[in-house]
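WARN retry 2 of 3 for item q-0093 after timeout on previous attempt; input resubmitted unchanged.
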Amino acid sequence: RWNCVSLTLVLALLVVNLWSSPASAENELEPFAVTIHGHERTHTEYIEKLVRDCLSGAAYPQQPGYLDIYMRQCLINSKLFEKIKIQFSAKTIDVEVQERWTLIPIPYLQVNTGNSRQIGLIVIETNFRGNGKILAGGASLSNVGASYFGYYQDPAINYSNWRGDILADHVNQALRLYRQ
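OK item q-0093 returned
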C-alpha cells in the first residue's frame, strides 16, 4: 500500500516538473504581440508558436542585432519558409513570411544486374494541415513483389514540446532461390 502511494507521489512530482518552466525570471523576455503576414497554408497559431519558441531559445536577446538574425535563422530552420522579414517595435513583432513548396514527389527506378527491376513513387508533405506535420507515403512495384509504406510525424503535439511518429509498411516479395 505504501509502495503505491509513494509511486503515485513520485509520478505526480515528475509531471509537475515536466510542466513547470525552468527559465528564471531574469532571462525571460517581456511578452510580445506577434502579427503574421504572407502565409497561406500554415496556420497562424503554428507560426506564432514557432516565433515564441525561437524567442525563448535566444541566448542574448538584449545584444543589438542579435535577435533579428537569430529569429530569422530559427524560423528558416523550420524548413517551411523561403523568405522571412521580421520587424521589432516596442511590444510587437511583425513577421512576414513566404512559404516554400512543401509537397515533394520523388519517383525512382532501380535496375539490378540480377534481372530485377523496381519502380516506385514517394510523396512527402512537410506541412500537413498547416501545422508543420509530416505525412509521407510511397509504393513500389517490382518483378519480385510490391511494397508500400506510410509515415506521419507531429513535431508539436497540440502545440507542445512533445513529438509523435507513426510508421507503417508492408513488403510482399517472392524470394527466388537458385541452385547451381
